[in-house]
UniProtKB/TrEMBL annotation:
Species this protein is from: Psychroflexus torquis (strain ATCC 700755 / CIP 106069 / ACAM 623)
High-level lineage: Bacteria, Pseudomonadati, Bacteroidota, Flavobacteriia, Flavobacteriales
Listed InterPro entries: ZIP
Keyword set, alphabetical order: Membrane, Transmembrane, Transmembrane helix
Bilayer disposition of the protein: Multi-pass membrane protein
Main location: membrane
Pfam families on file: Zip
A GO CC term assigned to this protein in UniProt: membrane
Protein name: Zinc transporter, ZIP family
Top-level taxonomic group: Bacteria
Length: 221
């Protein structure tokens, strides 16, 4: 079930983009909510757990995660937090975007096994991203087959990360470091979403309310 939810998130995103892409407002609110909820769950639960593990200099890996996410966003143009900058005329498969999104999605699957709140946070974070990516790709000159391939592989990367964590011994020794890296990724992605969600930094009472709601829900979970 937990493996299916992230795939469902991508499908829901695809469905929304297909049927109601006009609703830009919804996507922006969804993005703001997902950013604040992801940040809150990370700070309230995920981060303290890592520091309580007692592993020396684990904070270095959190900083490493932030740097890794910055590099991934150079490759993806910021698709992980909600916008895309590749040419719509492009008919070649966007490999750089694809690889960078897949690395990001795989890594965020690693800690969600056995952590339900984080699982919800990642799923909520995925829906607006999937809407934006699929609606963007379907509006390029890429063939439908290429777009479907892109979304399919992207959709299974997060459950694949969880699966490897849960069913192999591959990450047994490095799991704690991977988790710290993912914290860095989440910190960067979620704060960037919140930063970019306020257009020209004008105060928007609705958006502020949505952000507070995300924090509140993470607190009472
Ligand atoms: Zn950006
Ligand atoms: Zn993500």
């Amino acid at each position: 079930m937990n493996l299916l939810l992230p795939i469902l998130a991508v499908l829901i995103g695809f469905g929304i983009s297909y049927f109601l892409y006009e609703k830009f407002v919804i996507i922006n609110f969804l993005l703001a909510f997902s950013g604040s909820f992801l940040l809150s769950v990370t700070v309230l639960e995920f981060l303290p757990g890592i520091y309580n593990s007692g592993v020396d200099s684990i904070g270095v890996f959190i900083l490493g995660g932030i740097l890794l996410q910055i590099m991934l966003e150079y490759m993806s143009g910021g698709a992980e937090h909600g916008h895309l900058h590749i040419s719509k005329e492009n008919t070649n498969f966007p490999w750089v975007l694809f690889v960078s999104l897949c690395i990001h999605a795989f890594l965020e699957g690693v800690p969600i096994h056995g952590n339900d709140h984080l699982l919800y946070a990642v799923i909520i974070h995925k829906v607006p991203i999937a809407i934006i990516i699929s609606s963007f790709l379907f509006n390029t000159n890429l063939s439908k087959a290429k777009v479907v391939f892109f979304l399919l592989i992207f959709g299974i990367m997060t459950p694949f990360g969880s699966f490897v964590q849960a069913n192999t011994t591959l990450f047994d020794d490095i799991g704690i470091y991977l988790n710290a890296i993912v914290i860095g990724i989440f910190l960067h992605v979620s704060t960037t979403i919140l930063f970019e969600s306020s257009k020209d930094h004008k105060f928007n009472i609705y958006k502020f309310g949505i952000i507070v709601l995300g924090i509140f829900l993470a607190l009472i979970l």
